[in-house]
Amino acid sequence: MTQHKVIFDTDPGVDDALALYYLVRHPQIDLLGVTTVFGNAPVAMTTRNARFLLQAWGHDAPVHRGAEGPMTPDMPPEFWPTHIHGDNGLGNHPTPDATVDGPETAAQFLIDTIRAHPGEVRVLAVGRMTNLARAVQMAPDIAGLVRDVVIMGGAFRVPGNITPAAEANIWGDPLAADVVFGADWPVIAVPLDLTTRTFMDSATLADLGARGGAGMQLVADLSQGYVGFYQAAGYDGMLVHDCTAAVYLTDPDLFTLTQGEVRVLSEGIALGLTLMNPADRQGPLGAWEGRPRQSATLDGQPDAILARIAQVCTA
Questions:
Q1: Separation in Å, CA 244 to CA 23, 200, 313
Q2: Which one of 64, 85, 93, 241 is the catalytic residue?
Q3: What is the pTM of this model?
């Protein structure tokens, strides 16, 4: 049975919690560690949340605190999406009161772990790309040592969810995202093009909580505010953005890849826009010249992805 050595870069975050539970429960995932970043909440809070969840599920993966802000200069002020993820980042589900202070160790952990397992480590990043960008700038050699980098981010042929141009994870640090797409490592983006079609209804979530034991029931409980956000818009359930990207690690056959060089705009009205030069396009490359060809899952099988999540999280 193939084992996947995974570092999870995350900003928990309700949909991050489901993705983390999928990684913890999947028999083929060897979770080497968790690195945290600002995004759904401040990094002190996302670090606390990651540790809380792992402890609740009895998993001893180390958690390394990461970036507290973007590398992109002159970014608009960050706003924490408390209307989606609650005041504590986990849907206001009870968590320890203390947040986590301390040094930023995520980038160095990424470097050290990738170097320790050449050709084996898969990075799954479902928040801002700041930690990854810092790591590859600090140690360019890791681009040739990592197995791949799977990200939840981008909106290539559909509108964004922060602005019409941009998806949240890319918008939060577009320069970092451009660095990640431009590094000489294989990137697979799982964007809104697919994740906005991967919708778990409320009845399914309740059923998984009932069948999946205390661990999955915790995910269902802390997801209720997230479900309420979608219910206010007329949808009875929730999108599982981050867990869709987690499924790519284990079931790539459920996804359809499009390839091309990618740039991310880091200023102006289209800040955070992901622009792919498709592999079959004829014409000059311009600003895409010399960039590595990366992949994006612009299509896939949402029903089968949801079925896989259900199977793993209730096993």
A1: 12, 11, 13
A2: 241
A3: 0.96
